[in-house]
Each structure stands twice: as C-alpha cells, then as structure tokens.
Amino acid sequence: MKNRVTILLLLVLALVALDQASKWAVVLNFPFEWVYGYSPKHIPVWADNAWVNFSFVRVHNTGVAFGTGNGTVWAPIVFLGVQVVALIWLTALYRKGFFATRIMKAAWVLLMAGVLGNMADRLTQGFFIPGAEKLSFLENLLNGYVVDFLDFSFPWIHTEMWPMGYHWPSFNVADSCVCTAAALFLLTAFLSPKSTDKTAEKEAAQ
Q1: 42 — phi, psi (to 5°)?
Q2: pLDDT tens, position by position, 2-52
Q3: Are 81 and 87 in contact (CB under 8 A)?
C-alpha cells in the first residue's frame, strides 16, 4: 500500500516538475512588456493552417480557466485559497478510498499535479517581476500569476468577437492535467458499476 502511494506521489512530482520546467523556459526566454501586459514574442509551431494554428506564447493569468478573474485585485488570494482547500480535499478523499480504481487514481495524480503546478506559480512568480525587490512579501505574493504558454486558434470558426477565427484561451501543462482528469472522471461515469466494483476489489487485494 505504501509503495503504491509512493509511486503515485512520484508521478505527481514528475508532472509538477514538467509543468514548472516548461513555464520557466517560457519566462526566461520570452520578454514581457510589463507596461502593456503582453509578450511581443511568439513561436509559431503550426501556422497558416485553415483548421488549427498552434504557437508558444507568454501570457500571465491571475485568474483561473478562461481568464476568469484575471487582472482583479482579489483573484491571487482567493484562487490561492481555493487551491489550498482543493489539495486538502483531494488528500482527504484519497484516504477515504474515493479513488479506488486505476482510472480514478490516475485522475487523482493529474488533479494533484495540476493544482500544485499552478499553485507554485502563484507562490513564486510575483517575486521575479521587475521591482519586486522594493515590495513587501505580501505585495509580491499578491502579484503572483499563472504562466500560460500553449496557444491555439481555429480560423474556420468565425464570430462577431473573433472575426479572424476563434482563439482558445492560452493554457499550460497543469491545466492540461486537470482537464485530462475531468475526462477520466467522465469516463468512469459511463463504466458499469459492476466493472468498477470488480476493479476496485482487485486494487484493494493487491
């Protein structure tokens, strides 16, 4: 049992390391116009495609998914608190056996990695912005943000807001982990209760 938990925690740490390494690669290599709030640099990976375009960018998000709360004064503290509660809640659910099957354990790993990855941004990135050395600890903490860098657009989807094609909000590895976990939860909802129970019993017996 302890070996299984150790393996799961190592997987969580590996995903968090991947998330942080990718974000710092962007922060260290993409200049940022702090006055205007964007990076003029972007690296096209798949461009001039009629269906989908993909680029590496640098976007700061103090909010959550789809930029909700981004730029507000309350977002850094509120969403940091939400992440702390989420970690405690996920840990408690795991101890109660909620994540019994392999699919559910994989979802737990992905959720923990996603929360920890973005939480690490909120706790650290504010201390590396220009002029941070002149601010207090609390002020730097309030300046924390999440680094988003995966950027997709869909030229074939036209709306009034996106006349040149729909642009999906930029995201990162941690966000991808959370979304994948949600997909796994959705998958378990379609599995028959009997198959889920049998899998859980096998897992408990090991």
Answers
A1: -150, 150
A2: 788 999 999 999 999 999 999 999 999 999 988 777 888 999 999 888 899
A3: no
Phi, psi of 169 (to 5 degrees): -55, 135
Angstrom CA distances, 93 to 11, 54, 130, 181, stand at 18, 37, 40, 15
Q: In what order do the strands lie in the sheet with 146-154?
A: 43-46, 53-61, 146-154, 166-171
With H, G, I as helix, E, B as strand and everything else as coil, classify residue 48.
coil
The amino acid at 87 = L
Q: Residue 59: helix, strand or coil by DSSP?
A: strand
Closest by CA to 150, choosing from 61, 68, 31, is 61
Catalytic residues: 148, 175
- 21-30 CB contacts, 8 Å cutoff, 24+ apart: 22/149, 22/172, 22/173, 23/121, 23/147, 23/149, 23/172, 23/173, 26/56, 26/58, 26/147, 26/149, 27/58, 27/125, 27/128, 27/147, 30/56, 30/57, 30/58, 30/149
Give the separation between CA 146 and CA 16, rounded to whole angstroms. Answer: 13
78-100 per-position pLDDT tens digit: 889 999 999 999 999 999 999 98
